[in-house]
Amino acid sequence: MRFYVPEWDDHVDADYDFVHDEHSALEKSERNMAYIWDIFDHETTPIDGLLISREQVEDTSTKFDRLTSHGVYEDPLLDLPEWVPTISDCGAWGYKSLPFPPYGNEDMLDFYEDLDVSIGVTIDHLVLGSGHSARLYLDERAFSDASLEESDLPSTLTDAVDDVMVDEWPEAWPPYVDDYEPSLRSSGDVEPFSAELFQGDPESVLQRLAEDPRAVYRPDDMQFRYDLSLDNAAEMRDLLDEGDYSFRPMVAIQGWDEDSYRKAAERVLEMGYQYLGIGGVAGSSEEVVKDITEAVGNEIQSFEIEHETRVDCHVFGFAKTGAFETIGRSGMSSFDSASMLRAAWTGGENYHLDSDTRYDALRVRYPGFSDDLETAIEKALRAQELLHALRAFDNNRSIATALREWNESAKEAIDALPGYLEKERESSRFDHSRLREVEAAFRADYDHARELKASFSDSLRGKLIKLLREEDADGTVPWGEYLELLSAAHRVFDGREPTLLSTIEEREAESGAQGTFDQLWPLVESYTAYVGDEDLLPAYEDLLLDEPWRECDCAICSDLGIEVAIFRGNNRNRRRGFHNTHRFYQEFAADLPRLLVITKGDAQLSRPGTVETYLQEQRPEFWSATHDLPVAEVGVMTANGIHEWWAETPSTVSFAPDELSESLAQECIRYQDVFVDVSDGKIDHELRDRIEAQNCTVHTFKRQHELRKAVFDRLGFPMQSLLSGF
Ligand SMILES: [Zn+2]
Questions:
Q1: CA of 556 to the centre of ligand 1 (A)
Q2: Could you tell me the pLDDT band of residue 254, with boundaries at 50, 70 and 90?
Q3: 577 CA distance to ligand 1 middle (Å)
Q4: Measured distance CA(311)–CA(302) in Å, rounded
Q5: Domain around 91
Q6: Half-sphere exposure of residue 491, counting CA atoms within 13 Å on the CB side?
Q7: 146 FRET partner, CA 20 to 30 A, in 192, 201, 339, 676?
Q8: CA 583 / ligand 1 centre spacing (Å)
């Protein structure tokens, strides 16, 4: 069972300066970008694969060019390890309001080849909804001259259909669209809609629109989308059979209830697909997902038994821990979700220990764009003092001392500035036309540049940088303009004491302890009142009393402590998302362990064909006992690694003992248990020791039916329940 995460540029600055909230380099391209697989190591990375949607790849033309020219494994930015399998699909959510997916089958096959992904998915179209819907699609570009707006459409028409979907249509539609809606092909320049076109009774309006290249009407659009997804699957199957593609195909199925999904599964199994993907369930309730996976799973299991084959199945956009058991028992092989990652910054309860224990990270806010300079400085100072206090609290240090030390560095940063500027402002190091380069020069040269931005706001440093850029050899910026900026800082800072310093000092003196909740809490109360977050105080109290980051052994919490529990900017929030993903993965691995079932290959494995054919012909008893096992991955081992059941056979095979134990130990890093068929011999001690050194338990079996039973026992699933609809 594999957990995939959708790729959505989820990276952080590996060398971020948390104390001053500064990136390692101002130029994005110069930063060392860390993805989740960079932060965790091979064994602990809390994902088993990456889902890359075309819609996301096309987010910018630079990204599209980069990924299609390098491929996902050679791309310098992603720098994806070879062990991370990749699924690529169209990203049906992105074009849900278009009458057709904007991609053609051949085009998608080329795209998957260019991306060099492990698995490519057929083109589906979300059915959207649970009943049969009449939908009218209109090209948004025909509303562009504003003489007629969407809101001007007569209600007699909009009431007559279930949905009106207005979206910008692509310049050109893929070729298959011709078979369904030939009028769309003729669209060149888009003529604006006239109000008259929509007048009259709905029936005659829809009739008028029938041949219109700017409109598509369908009385049963859900059925249409369902059939279209199946038609695309059939067309892509033909192309796959004719061509030679390096990725494994997956067929995406759609539906609106158990039965429609089950029928779709039946159809695509007949087409010969061995990896199904259940689409359109993202956002559905746990019960709905359970019912659909059970229905599809039962269909697959009958097929597996009837044909003595194996079929994998993926659930798109699924992350309900309560449905793990059903997902496992239904024979699902993989699923994906970004919800625990995104939950880190999209609302409350954003720091997860598990699916029930969730906390609110403490929001320490940056000044807003519309704040005047003095307000921005005050907000920056308030944020910094709280951040320093939180770190002292986490380290059991004196909060009062931390505040005093910070106040001193802030003072130095502003006090040393006039002297520095008088001496350096005309320096040639600031002779750049781009602000970012001037800022980089200032950051590198002025000792307190980071503290200046942290404590006196990005706004103050930014204004200063603009003045420095204006300087040239003749000294064109009057000194008074600098003084104006400096005096704004002095008006806020001079005579200012860190908030509640004396209260904190008194509490420290009274208790004799340092960095306690009681010493920190008044400052948190005062800060939340200042930024208007008082409603979050009860949640913050839970967070600071429980200190959940101390309970987490992930690379992020261990390294950064309380920073992960602070809601502030991409570098904290996305790292918290990685942490949430890690906690989710632990729950997943406890319920649905990573299991590998293998048999040793022999020279016959190098004959052309698939590993499945090899197993059917050369290892019939093993295959018969394992081909329908749930949750586990099934394959053949050689010195080259594990050859999964669905793969093409390798052209050469080796069984050199040293290489065999080396590569198997590598492969087992991410498995909890490996079940080895040793019916033709036994596993040597050294190999067992190598694997077990990777925290993976080795089970060996001379009789395959015992192996089968052991897998069910390990999962806690009763063997006979497989097909009985548990
Ligand atoms: Zn953690």
A1: 5
A2: very high
A3: 9
A4: 11
A5: 48-127+224-337
A6: 11
A7: 201
A8: 7
